[in-house]
Amino acid sequence: MKRFLVAIDLWDETNRVLEYAKKLATEFDGKLCVVHSETPESYIPSYDTEFEPELSINNMEIMKSHEKMIKHRFDKIKADLKNDNIESAFVLMEGSTAKNILKEVKEFNADLIIIGSHKHGRFYNLIFGGVHDVLINRSNIPIFIIPAENKENDK
C-alpha cells in the first residue's frame, strides 16, 4: 500500500488521525491525500431570513469566518507534512462527506482510507447513521478507523 486517503473533520481527533497517517506514509514510503468535506448546514444556523434579512448577512460572515478557519488549518497541516517530507495532496469538498470520500478514493486511486471515529453511542448512530457505516458498506478498499481518544484513561 502506498496511497492513503485521510479524511479529517478538523475537530478533536484530527491530529491523532494525521499522526497515524504520517506513520503509515513514512513506513511504506506512501503518499497522503488529505480530504475534508463540509456542508453549509454544518456551520450556518438555519434561520428564516425572509422575515429577518439581517440574519443572511450574519450567515455570510459565519461562512467566511469558517472558510478562513478551514484554510488556516489546512495550511498548517500542509506545512507540517512538508516538514516531515511526506508527499501529500489536499482536497476541500462540499456536500455529502461519505460520497465525497468515495469519489476521491477513485480519483486518488487510494489503497486505504484512514478516518477517525467519534464518541457517539449506539443510539446516536442508530438514529443518525454515520460516515463510517456508508464507507464500510460501499468502499472497495480497506478502512482504518482510528478510535477516539479515551480521556478518562489519560488522567
Task: Estimate percent helicity.
Answer: 40-55%
Could you say which structural class the secondary elements and strand pairing correspond to?
alpha/beta
Q: How many strands appear in the DSSP assignment?
A: 5
Relative strand content: 15-25%
Number of helices: 5
Largest sheet: 5 strands, parallel
Low-confidence stretches: none
End-to-end distance, in Å? 36 Å
Shape: globular
N-to-C series of helices and strands = EHEHEHEHHE
- Please state how the strands of the largest beta sheet are arranged side by side: 3-2-1-4-5
The average pLDDT is 81
Q: Measured on Cα atoms, how large is the radius of gyration?
A: 17 Å
Question: What can you tell me about this protein's structure?
Answer:
- With 155 residues, the chain is α/β, with parallel strands linked by helices.
- The protein has 5 helices and 5 strands.
- A 5-stranded parallel sheet has the order 3-2-1-4-5, with helices on both faces.
- Helix 3 crosses helix 5.
- The longest helix has 30 residues.
- It is globular and about 45 Å long.
